[in-house]
Fold this sequence. Notes:
Blueprint: H1 15-39, H2 45-71, H3 78-116, H4 122-125, H5 130-170, H6 173-187, H7 199-202, H8 204-219, H9 236-256, H10 264-287, H11 294-321
Amino acid sequence: MRRHDHQTTQADLTAGAVLAPYLQEQAAEFLRSLRLHRENSAPTDAGTHAAEAAAGALRRSSRRIGGTLHTFRAALDTAWAEQLRTELAWLSGTLAREHAYATRLNRLLEALHALSGTSLPTARTGSGSDAAGDKERAALGVGAARAGALLERQLTLARTRAHSAALQALGSSRFHAVADAVALLASEVPLAAAATAPAEEMLHGPADRAEQQLLGAVAALPSDEAVEPYNEAQDAPWHRTRLLLRLHRYAHEVVRGAPDPVLVAPGRALDLHRDASEAAAAAASAARTPRIAPATAYALGVLHADQRHEVEAARGVFRESWPYATAVTAP
């Protein structure tokens, strides 16, 4: 996947000379995002949107630092890199939950609105008569509003709790220790003695391994024939591929100085796959709520099926957009 007609780094640069500026740039972005988040923490519309954008940038820089520490740990102080990577994963995960619940709710409500206002997909109506289809659409229309209200209650509560957890995390001594460590990283990177070796010797090997892990995961994805559309356990290898693609993208940024543009579309497809999978799980969870009306349960069942169809569609987009001559289905 690496294009050998271009030099990824200058031949006379050491691994530390390549790795340190990237980590310092990401650390500086982390600190800028943190400052913007604090400046826009007031509960106003403009402040809320700015704080959300800052939290997103904070998550991105945390992931990039953490991924780089993981891939190139041999060139870094190992104990320091592992500890900071673990703490950044905690921070990124904590901050991501609120955004994830809000995105999931919007996705489900939009899907419910679309489903209740249009004819049902063939896969769900089967070969019944038009009268049966009209009856199903009527039942869906009755249950959609209640299903939406139920989802809004559940996911808004989850989002509120996630918001409180994020605020608590940002005020904790644990977070302040992370912020202090990143501030130090912005000025000095704890490199290992091996970082004085040429960059091509120290950095290309780990980057290639990240690439090979991604290629192996893509090649091992189950074929369409082996997939059971409603078997959510089969989502796991796709989620793993998404994480490996992210690690490869960060490694590419280090050794090439920029992300690989041909991986943008596959990455987006895997993000959509994750979002649809989690939305389907939320619909299924809501359908298990005790004592809900049959029409509500029916609407949630249709919504779950719709999101599982979206999971399949995202897989198809990934297969079509994957740019390399690697098999994207298992034999």
